């Protein structure tokens, strides 16, 4: 897997995994900004792509401390999660590790508590989305 990418297998289809993830995000008071269905877009363009969806979500209280520490972190915020069916048909959910984002932008210790909270939240909502 690419550097900084955390992945989890899902017991559900891509669409159901993303429905469950969106519900878990909203239940925690975050905003879902956009959901992109890359697979459908590819089909509409006359191309093949296994099911692939992206969810963009977040909350200013979570991401702002990281951007205050290093404003360039805004390129990686709001948070994103990608769900796809791999070559073997296994559905996977992945996201950028907030620790990796903080290191990428040399955020230092100023946003450490926020980064840890983001990581814990991502693990929790991923678990809700992926487990049976």
UniProtKB/TrEMBL annotation:
InterPro entries, per the entry: DUF302, TT1751-like_sf
Occurrences of domain DUF302 (ranges): 36-98
Top-level division of the source organism's lineage: Bacteria
Protein name: DUF302 domain-containing protein
Organism: Acidisphaera rubrifaciens HS-AP3
């Amino acid at each position: 897997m690419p550097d900084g990418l955390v992945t989890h297998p899902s017991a559900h289809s891509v669409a159901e995994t993303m429905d469950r993830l969106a519900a878990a995000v909203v239940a925690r008071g975050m905003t879902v900004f956009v959901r992109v269905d890359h697979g459908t877009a590819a089909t509409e363009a006359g191309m093949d792509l296994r099911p692939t969806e992206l969810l963009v979500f977040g909350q200013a209280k979570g991401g702002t401390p990281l951007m205050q520490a290093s404003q360039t972190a805004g390129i990686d915020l709001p948070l994103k999660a990608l769900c796809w069916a791999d070559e073997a048909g296994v559905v996977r959910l992945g996201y950028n590790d907030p620790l990796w984002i903080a290191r990428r932008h040399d955020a230092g210790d100023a946003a450490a508590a926020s980064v840890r909270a983001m990581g814990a939240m991502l693990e929790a909502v991923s678990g809700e989305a992926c487990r049976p």
